[in-house]
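Project channel, design review

CF: Before we commit to the Lichenibacterium ramalinae constructs, I'd like one complete example in the thread so the newer folks can see what an input/output pair looks like. Taking Zn-dependent hydrolase.
RD: sounds good, go ahead.
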Amino acid sequence: MTGPAIQIDAAEVERLVLELGAIGAWGGTGVWRPVYTPAWVAAADRFAAWCGEAGLAVHRDAVGNVWGRLDGREGGDAIVSGSHLDTQCPGGRYDGALGAIAALLAVRALKERFGLPKRPLDVLALCEEEGSRFPTAGFWGSSAIVGRVGPAEADTMVGSGGETMAEAMRAIGLDPARIAEARRTDIAAFVELHIEQGPILEQAGLPVAIVDAITGMRHTEIVLTGVANHAGAFPMDLRQDPMAGFAEIAAGVVATAHRMGRPAVTTVGRVAVDPNAPAIIPRAVTFTIDARHPDPAARDRLYALHDGLIREVAARRGLGVESRVLFDHPPCPSEPDLVALLERGAAAQGVPTLRMASGAAHDTQQMAAVARRVAMVFVRSRDGRSHTPEEFSSVADMVAGIRVLAAGLYALAYEP
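CF: and here is what came back for Zn-dependent hydrolase:
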């Protein structure tokens, strides 16, 4: 079944986006709202109030995730939708926040038109995803829900101001000793709406995409070591120059992803040179490689090509090489039947879509550990901008995305 046409109030979408974006406002259009700060507390309070006004049963779990429940007539595991409230520093009004607002407006529209669903519907505003205050904390809210936060983690995780996660939690009335209580095992499906954070929808001239996979990503730190020497007096053929090796590797790994084609991507993002002087052959160059692909086999091939190139260049140039994987997230495929269901819902709403993989990581990857079915809905971003005050999605595109989300939630929670 494709379900009925569902209407979403465009003015209400714009109002909630701007109202939430004003909490922690930075500059003209930016938002500065890292987890557990006063701005974050105010945003969580506002979202909880909106859920209560919509007639949802509101509660906050042990890490501060806000849940709004619409009970189901037949009970069972919940259908959940939402995203995160925290931002980059500074970020924009749409990354994360739009997904939480979309879930609320979709469920509110369904409740007002169709009453109680057969299965429970949960709206979720996750406390943290960005890692903007605690660099190692990314996905803190969803990690707690799926039971991936260790008992001592809050005490050892240090924030940008030197405070621990545990101290930040206690400062707003949360008890780190109760983190395990945030775990949920009763989630049947999780659907997250998010801005695209890239240019594909804009290039295609479409408002909405259905995400069929979230990329696998690996961050690797490489240290190339050679011999520091005079930049003028030492012949080229006798040098052990880690900068020359770095230049060859950086160009090579980027070219490898380019040859593989979309959606393979590789980025050399951070470089440190020792010594960093104009007339000295460096002793060492340390750099990072961010490599991503949503297909498990292609991802492994991309990583293997990168690793082989690094070894070959280092050996040929007489360089020492150390490699350390900072993190390695596997790809997360969407559940195929759920992707098809969302596409049918989009067709019923008259919203044109395409399928695409997400090149960014999302809470959905974490939620897949407990939800039997996961998928995402992307909304077009102007110029593909994200993680910046300049990010923007039009009201018309946001409404289209929320209608697709609502159609999917209707099929999951209301239909047999």
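RD: helpful, thanks. The chain has a mean pLDDT of 97.
CF: The CA atoms of residues 209 and 378 lie 5 Å apart.
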